[in-house]
Amino acid sequence: MEELIRIAKGVYRNLAITAAEFFDLPSITKENLHEWVELEGLEHFEAGIAQGKGLLTIIAHFGNWELMPVTGPLFLKSSYIVYRPLDSPVLDNIVEHVRTINGNVMVPKGGSGKRIMTLLKENQCIGILSDQNVSAREGVFVDFFGRPACTGAGLAVLALRSGAPVLPMFMARQKSGKYKFILKPLVEISRTGDYEADLLENTQRFTKVVEDIVREYPDQWFWIHQRWKTKKCQVGMG
Fold first, then answer.
1. Inter-CA distances, 137 with 3, 141, 236, Å
2. Which of 71, 165, 227, 236 could form a disulfide with 48 if both were Cys (CB 3.0 to 4.6 A apart)?
3. Number of helices (H) and strands (E), helices first, in the chain?
């Protein structure tokens, strides 16, 4: 119980710090970037982009996730970020401004598949949040911390159809207060020829990557999100 309380307090602390830092993000430049972030795993990005098939990235509501779209273009290259617009147009405009300040482009989630396939053929980077609950008709159930979690299969669909490599990336706050921009090894994609089985297996692999980083920094994930909201019994319901 003590550990749970410690993690819960850390989660709220992380959210408060992320919110407070948000308004400083536009001031980050190549010149002062090192004061905020250090990069780990550049070789994984280089290996992915060298394939020439574009790059799909696994990102999550972890650490200071808003710092990634600001610093990513300074370290690597600009990206196309798939997103669902916020309910508040005012907040949505503010967030979009910060996320695109260094050259990123926001791609609304609905009906974006065809555009993303074109962008991948142009060897572009696509950012997709991979840690959210979706409805039963939108996703597949995979294991996340020992419980079935309904997870969007879009990333697996794109990976299978395009052949693009998948790169996990996370922005982890360190004890010093600075951040480590962690690029993990490319995720090996299952291609057995059984499309439905491959969708499930690859979505599980992507979800396991998120689980691993959360286990490493348990107080830096957005636990407040109802990740297990959709239940298996809801499948087939109208």
1. 36, 11, 8
2. 165
3. 7, 9
Domain locations in the chain as residue ranges: 2-218
| Averaged pLDDT of the chain | 93
Which strand ranges, in their side-by-side order, compose the sheet holding 125-129? 37-40, 179-183, 166-173, 55-59, 125-129, 79-83, 105-108
Could you tell me which residues are beta bridge partners of residue 58?
128, 168
- Give the containing element (helix H, strand E) for 171: strand 166-173
Distance of alpha carbon 12 from alpha carbon 155, whole angstroms? 29
pTM, two decimal places: 0.93
Q: Which two tokens stand for residue 47?
A: 């290996």
Percentage of the chain exceeding pLDDT 70: 97
One-letter identity of residue 91: L
| pLDDT, tens digit, 9 for 90 and up, residues 154-174 | 999 999 999 999 999 999 999
